[in-house]
Amino acid sequence: MKARGNSLSNRVLDQIIHNWPAKILSIAAAFLLFFFTNLAQLEERFVTVPLEVQLDRDMAAVSSAPTTVRIGIRGEAGRVSTLREEEFSAFVDFRDMDEPGFARAPVQVSPAGTARGIDPLEIRVEPAEVGLELEYRQSRSVEVVPNIEDNPAPGYELRQSFLTPSAVEIEGPESRVAGIESVSTETVSLAGRRDDFNIRVRLERPDPFVSFPGGDTVDYRGIIEERVVLTTFEDIDITVIDLDTEFDLVNALPSGLIRVQGSQLEIEAVQQDQLRLEITASSITEPGRHELQVRPRVPSGLLTLRFEPQTVELVIERVEDES
């Protein structure tokens, strides 16, 4: 009975190992068929998402990291195609780096929404890691300088300007922040302006690694006024008025000059014959030599600063009676 059992076992073993190379090849072929069948049912696509760089609050980057990464996602066909970029976030974590120097960290991808419910889901990211040069973070207050261009309308000028605030805080790597004394606004154009104005302008970033933690805009106020100029008019005739008809002026009078102040537009509009130097001779009652004061006459809106001469000698004779 025992011999019969051994014989049966031997026959089963013989059947198993009989032609074993062919049987192993059949098993391998079945496995490969199963693998490629499942493989054909998987789908792969790529999405591009922003990369968030996480730093220790006391550290700042002095080299650039990629702003986006490319994520490859592979999973069940039909489900992968419905995934959106918004369902993936990518970040690189340098928060453990609290000393200056060069550091590397892997890019990590976090699925969200429906992406979490897909299984299997293979995720790979390009680049796989990011390297950054780190420095201690520094902040300081610096002056804001307006960047003015163009000119107001003819005859007008920028009399004053104000910035609010006049200083702002900057923040960044200590080697970059240390060399910055002031920051400039974006261009403020004065072209054609005749009146005061207020605008909000952005600040120009002085370095790509420097930021404005309190905001990157300021208020600019410009005071526009007519330009005031000083001009001297020469060869001005001196006129004698109110001389009694019984007297006659017998000497020649010199020409004079008048120096005035006024707006550029008013000065440019003045004609020479609008300016006069006058002598009032109503006080003369006898012939002879009379030293009289000269008075300037200028158009309204102009201020007389100086004139010459201030006195003139008149030689007066009585008019002869022809009868």
TrEMBL record:
Transmembrane segments: 20-40
Domain of life: Bacteria
Keyword terms: Membrane, Transmembrane, Transmembrane helix
Matching InterPro entries: c-di-AMP_regulator (IPR053154), YbbR (IPR012505)
Keyword 4Fe-4S belongs to the record: no
Nuclease keyword on record: no
Database matches in PANTHER family: CDAA REGULATORY PROTEIN CDAR
Name by which UniProt lists this protein: YbbR-like protein
Organism the protein comes from: Spirochaeta africana (strain ATCC 700263 / DSM 8902 / Z-7692)
Native organism taxonomy: Bacteria, Pseudomonadati, Spirochaetota, Spirochaetia, Spirochaetales
